[in-house]
Amino acid sequence: MKLDPEARYAKTHEWARWDGDEIVCGITDHAQDALSDIVYVELPDVGDAFDKGDVFGVVESVKAASDVYMPMGGEITAVNEDLEDMPELINKDPYGQGWLIRFKPSDPAEFDDLMDGAAYEAMVAAEEEE
Among 5, 89, 98, 119, which residue is least crowded by beta carbons within 10 Å? Predict the structure, then answer.
């Protein structure tokens, strides 16, 4: 399982990383691997605002559809429009070209509530043992 050393992780398998005063967000390598071939992504509109834990989109694969949750509250400033034509970018590069949204956090301190890579790996390992 690949991780981004600069990112923090939510229990719902999203990653968040600071880029200036915004957060870039996507689904983790573990999540895209579990979903397998991603064929469609539904993303919010720029300007939409969400609270931490709200569903902001859907990722559909050949296996299943999965809701995607806000790791922090904030207002959407950009969505990855490349995913409309190439949703498979999420499979190929989940922490790079496969990002989903950028947002301006309403409470930057919520970043500190997210897991670091070691804690996320431990959570995934515990889930796989169940």
Answer: 5
The residues, any chain, with a CB within 8 Å of residue 29's CB and separated by 6 or more, are: 1, 2, 3, 94, 95
Q: Return the H-helix or E-strand segment holding 115.
A: none
What DSSP designation does 72 have?
S
Q: What is the DSSP string of 67-81?
A: EEE-SS-EEEEEE-T
Q: Residue 41: which of 97, 80, 94 has the closest Cα?
A: 80
Q: Is 45 helix (H, G, I), strand (E, B) or coil?
A: coil
**Three-class SS state of 59:** strand
Q: Are 6 and 114 in contact (CB under 8 A)?
A: no
DSSP 112: G
The rounded distance, in Å, linking the Cα atoms of 50 and 13 is: 17
- pTM for this predicted structure: 0.96
Q: What is the mean pLDDT of residues 68-87?
A: 98
List, in order, residues 6 or more apart from 58 with CB less than 8 Å away: 40, 41, 42, 65, 66, 67, 68
Cβ neighbours of residue 77 closer than 8 Å, sequence gap 6 or more? 22, 46, 102, 103, 104
The mean per-residue pLDDT over the stretch 112-128 comes to: 96
